[in-house]
Amino acid sequence: MKENSLIMAVNIRRILPGPRPFPGAPRLTLTRRHFSHTPLMQNAGSTLPAKKPVGAFRGGVFGFLSGALVAGATVYYYILGEYRISNEMLTEDIYALQSATQKLQTYISELETRLDQLQKKK
User: Is residue 105 one of the residues assigned to a domain?
Assistant: First the structure.
């Protein structure tokens, strides 16, 4: 118990400013334990698996494939949008052509009936 209170007093002296002990006082030194030199820590480093570095070829292939996938998906959706727009425009043109054909057909049938009526009068 005395030892803990002595260590706490030394730590408090380091933290708090105040008068320094007189030169004749015995100095307390704390010893530090270096865990990197203990056998347990030396063996612990060797049990970890070594991390394989990603090589330039493997990283390049992965980057190329992911870039090609993103570019392909972007082009696919762009072309799909363009296809929808062109399909709608073509459908509108077909309907306009159909209505124009019907109008022309009715006009021709009216002309034929008038022509028949003129020929009957003669």
Answer: yes
Cβ atoms of 30 and 3 within 8 Å: the answer is no
- Asked if 28 and 6 count as a contact pair (C-beta separation under 8 A), the reply is yes
* Tens digits of residue pLDDT in 46-104: 566 667 766 666 778 888 999 999 999 999 999 999 999 999 999 999 999 999 999 99
Residue 15 resides in a domain: no
Question: pTM higher than 0.85, yes or no?
Answer: no
Chain position carrying tokens 């028949």: 116
DSSP secondary structure string for all residues of 44-110:
HHHHSPPPPPPPHHHHHHHHHHHHHHHHHHHHHHHHHHHHHHHHHHHHHHHHHHHHHHHHHHHHHHH
Could you tell me the residue range of the domain that residue 121 belongs to?
71-122
Residue 121 lies in a domain: yes
> From residue 27, how far is each of 5, 16, 17, 21, 50 by CA, in Å?
15, 18, 18, 9, 46
Kindly give, in sequence order, each residue whose CB lies less than 8 Å from that of residue 30, ignoring residues fewer than 6 positions away: 7, 10
